[in-house]
Every structure is written in C-alpha cells, then in structure tokens.
Amino acid sequence: MFTGLIREIGRIRGLAPRRGVVRLDIDAPKLAAVANIGESIAVNGICLTVTGVKGRVFSVEAATETRRLTTFESWRRGGLVHLEPALRAGDALDGHLVQGHADGVGKIKSFQDVENGKELEVQVPKSLQKYVVNKGSIAINGVSLTVNKAEGDIISVRMIPHTVDGTTFKVKKAGDPVNLEVDIIGKYVEKLHFLGS
Fold it and tell me: For the whole prediction, is pTM greater than 0.90?
C-alpha cells in the first residue's frame, strides 16, 4: 500500500529481459540505501518487488501482464521515474490509499500554467471514467492528485509549484502516456452495489 507521495525521482540505468520478465535497474541513492530485497516500491505508480540492491542502484522485475497494462513499454534507459516505498505501520497517510495496481493508461492532453501552479488535463479510458469524480482522488504516475473537473473522457487536476518541482511532470508534454489508478473506494462501492442488487 502507498500514499501517492513521491519520495525520490529515480533514473533508469538499464532494462534487460530475464527469464520471462524485464529487469529494471534504477539509480536512486536515497531509496537504494534503505531498500531490502523482497520489499515493494512503486515505480511510476506500479508496485514492483525489489530483487537486488547494489550501491545507489536497486533492481525490480516486471512481468508480461504488468508491462501490457501500464506505460512500462515506453520507458527507456536514462528516463526519470517516480518512486515511493511501501507504507509502513505508523506512517502518516498524507495522500490517499494507493495500491500500486495501475487500472489503465491515460494520455496527457495539455499541461498549462494557471494561477498558483499548473493544470494537467488527461484523457481517461472509457472503462475508468465512471470511477473518477469531481474532487475525488486519482493517482497519475503514482502521484496522489485531486480531480478538479471530470467531463467526458477528460479530467483536469491542479498542481502547486511544489508538486510540479518534485515530480517528473515538469518535463511531460501533450501525448505522453501516464499510468492511472482510480480510487479503490469507488470500485468497492460498485462491487457491493452489484452484489446487493
């Protein structure tokens, strides 16, 4: 479980196929210093298991299904990724409950200056639109954000300068794919409603 608050921006040092998975080596000195094999780290909002640590670099592996359902295939050596270690008992829950299980891939439509920050517009797949509500929570590339407006297949979120500066959104552009994870509460409500009808 995660909160959607990014703790470090890592740089991809290598991607290598290995026994049906792809090993990803990430340069992240702060997290590598405390990471242990077997622990979970969210990488651009995808929960992955640490399989190795060497100096300032830790490794994770992504299976076929993970690569198919996320933006993983667009990642390249030298690229930047959001990183968040798993929530531990007693940690503050400052964002919202994020599982690290991407529900789908969206596409950035625009990222523009607005008063007191930036506004990000993202096109959301039809299958996820019913879970996104005004003033609700969504994780975009693992970042906990509040939906400012949801109209049709477009959602907009506002980011203060602190959020922009502490994430890779400052280098994103229209057309870039992003991992989306909708608020799990909406999915549970839907399931319970279905079972009760």
Answer: yes
